[in-house]
Amino acid sequence: MKFTALQIAGILEGEIVGNPDVEVSRLSKIEEGEDGTLTFLANPKYTNFIYTTKASITIVNKDFEAEKPITTTLIKVDDAYKSFSKLLNYYNQVKMNKTGIEQPAFIAESASFGENIYLGAFSYLGENVKVGNNVKIYPNVYVGDNVTIGDNTVIFAGAKIYSETVIGNHCVVNSGCIIGADGFGYAPNENGELQKVPQTGNVILEDHVDVGAGSTIDRATLGSTIIRRGVKLDNQIQIAHNVEIGENTVIAAQTGVAGSTKIGKGCMIGGQVGIVGHITIGDGVRIQAQSGIGRNVKDGETLQGSPALAYSAYNKAYVHFKNLNSLVNRVHQLEKNSNNE
Predict the structure, then answer these.
(1) Where is the signal peptide (predicted)?
(2) Are the C-beta atoms of residues 248 and 264 closer than 8 Å to each other?
(3) 333 domain-assigned
(4) How far is CA 283 from the centre of its chain?
(5) How far is the C-alpha of 111 from the C-alpha of 81, rounded, in Å?
(6) Is residue 288 situated within a structural domain?
(7) Same structural domain for residues 24 and 42?
(8) Active-site residue, 332 included
(9) In what order do the strands lie in the sheet with 178-181?
């Protein structure tokens, strides 16, 4: 897919300095630019590269003035970084603008879908599935019975959406995700054998939820596992049965949340965090990577460590921990001196 400087300037409402007909088909870092690529300059630390880059087009701020000869065509805009991001979004929309139903695909007679959808080859839509407008379902996606998918949602290749799941508008479910598998529920019988507790609930993803590749969200035992509006989940995250995550919370990769825990709004949770079940985490909480959370957390707390401490307390304790050997040696020396007196 090729774009000329003139086309890009039109999208960004920018001013061209150079050849309006030069074409690009790829993106690059400014220091690694090659012929046929587009790049941008937003950080002044990289200004020297604009004089050596081989990129065909460079997006720059309007106040940029070259002090030496350059070969790249410039597109001047109010904010180079924001304009480059806008262009990436535009490119993704063009690249992903697929429509139609590829074959082979299975669509149950009772399934229904809206306008302008894309259904990739080898996908499966079960009984009573309802798919909204402008939805894109990529190849090898399984959508179980009674699933609802809202408008403008994208389900990438290989995702599995179990029965009864409800997915809102403008959501993204990445490849390898499993939404709605059974929660991890077992109870011992009179012989001490573990018997499975039926998981009869579902999963609800509200609007504007993103779920990273390889993540799993389990269905509730009763009721719903709920991921509220605007939540962003990274790759390889485990969300257990009956968990609720509040609006606009962000969770990084490899975090696990055990059953029935409630996480508040606007939280930021680092990678590889472990959170026990049946606790409540307040709004606006910050949890550093690799922390272990085993208690309720109040609004606005920042935690680190395992088991997690208040962030400032952890840092103070860590200073002493690094000096532990010398402190032990001093104690031993004091005890030795005391015994010799």
Answers:
(1) none
(2) no
(3) no
(4) 19
(5) 43
(6) yes
(7) yes
(8) no
(9) 106-107, 124-125, 142-143, 160-161, 178-181, 216-218, 238-239, 256-257, 274-275, 292-293
> Do 64 and 126 fall into the same domain?
no
Answer yes or no: is 322 within a domain: no
Peptide bond into 307 cis (omega under 30): yes
Q: How many CA atoms lie within 13 A of 142 on its CB side?
A: 13
Residues 151, 263 share a domain: yes
pLDDT in tens, 219-254: 999 999 999 999 999 999 999 999 999 999 999 999
27 in the Ramachandran plot: left (φ > 0), alpha (ψ -120 to 50) or beta? beta
Contact 209, 230 (CB under 8 A): yes
pLDDT in tens, 258-289: 999 999 999 999 999 999 999 999 999 999 99
Torsion angle defined by CA atoms of residues 44, 49, 54 and 59, in that order, rounded to the nearest 10 degrees? 0
Q: How far apart are CA 320 and CA 301, in angstroms?
A: 23
Which domain CATH number covers 48? 3.40.1390.10
Give the phi and the psi of residue 129 in degrees, each rounded to 5. -70, 140
| Tens digits of residue pLDDT in 3-61 | 999 999 999 999 999 999 999 999 999 999 999 999 999 999 999 999 999 999 999 99
Give backbone dihedrals phi and psi of 127, rounded to 5 degrees, phi first: -65, 140
CATH number at 239 reads: 2.160.10.10
Q: What number of other Cβ atoms are within 10 A of residue 15's Cβ?
A: 12
Q: Is residue 14 part of a domain?
A: yes
Domain that holds residue 306: 100-314
176 and 289 belong to one structural domain? yes
Q: Are residues 171 and 283 in the same domain?
A: yes
End-of-domain residue from the set 72, 95, 118: 95
Give the active site residue among 208, 241, 320, 332. Answer: 241
DSSP 278-305: S-EE-TT-EE-TT-EE-S-B-TT-EEEE
Residue 156 and residue 173 in contact, taking contact as beta carbons nearer than 8 Å:
yes
How many domains does one find in the chain? 2
